[in-house]
Amino acid sequence: MPPRGSTARRAEIVRLARSTGLTNVEELSVQFGVTASTIRRDLSMLTDQGLIARTYGGAIALERHPESSLRQRAQQGFDAKHAIARWAASQVRPGETILLDAGTTVGAMGEYLGRVPGLTVVTSGLTTLEALADANDVRVECIGGTLRHLSQGFVGPIAEATLERLTFDRAFLGADAVTAEFGICEAELEQTRLKELMMQRSSELYVLAHADKLGRRPFHAWAPIPPGATLVTDSAATDDDVLPFEKAEITVVRVEGGGIT
């Protein structure tokens, strides 16, 4: 039931803007059972209070999702991330050259790849480098570039130039959030540009994202996911969560600790 009273309604508008990113006037009008004019007055007041920033036809919350550091994210959804990482690592075949993106879920794959014969791992992430530092049988290459301290990954023109000279049997990409409509969401455009190159240079593409990241839009930089890619998530993802991806011709795998759902 929609909250009653203008104060409760405005608080809910801010909550919605923070959780979904873009809030539309017409949708809010229907949801709260008030006129569009009432919603516009709410938005004007919230803007004056510094709680949101207006856009044409809607509102965007200010600083709704400050980017977390990699260390802060490391323990979030730990079991789900490692279940996803184990399944993803099981797809890798001996002798392949694979690309591992930066991020905690993709980085966790490094723990499960040390015994794959003849494997070459190319990575943009310090987490993967650390995980494979003692894996003497794995050839490890770093794409280099400018280090983003928050994500512990390399980006920028040097990283892009390196990718343009390589191809991969499989690429495993992380995401701050992911939607079927827009693709992978990240805090900065240089991150999504790098992910686009990763997708273009790989024969098989996997996007690793636990259920809490599905359908969210915390930032405004995107890398579209092509049809034929595989989204690997965990069993907390509902049928409603994964249906938009399946409609977009993206294969969805939901992984539990002991297997696939």
UniProtKB/TrEMBL annotation:
<dbReference type="InterPro" id="IPR050313">
    <property type="entry name" value="Carb_Metab_HTH_regulators"/>
</dbReference>
<keyword id="KW-0805">Transcription regulation</keyword>
<keyword id="KW-0804">Transcription</keyword>
<feature type="domain" description="HTH deoR-type">
    <location>
        <begin position="6"/>
        <end position="61"/>
    </location>
</feature>
<dbReference type="Pfam" id="PF08220">
    <property type="entry name" value="HTH_DeoR"/>
</dbReference>
<dbReference type="InterPro" id="IPR014036">
    <property type="entry name" value="DeoR-like_C"/>
</dbReference>
<protein>
    <submittedName>
        <fullName>Regulatory protein, DeoR</fullName>
    </submittedName>
</protein>
<dbReference type="InterPro" id="IPR037171">
    <property type="entry name" value="NagB/RpiA_transferase-like"/>
</dbReference>
<dbReference type="InterPro" id="IPR036390">
    <property type="entry name" value="WH_DNA-bd_sf"/>
</dbReference>
<dbReference type="InterPro" id="IPR001034">
    <property type="entry name" value="DeoR_HTH"/>
</dbReference>
<dbReference type="Pfam" id="PF00455">
    <property type="entry name" value="DeoRC"/>
</dbReference>
<dbReference type="GO" id="GO:0003700">
    <property type="term" value="F:DNA-binding transcription factor activity"/>
</dbReference>
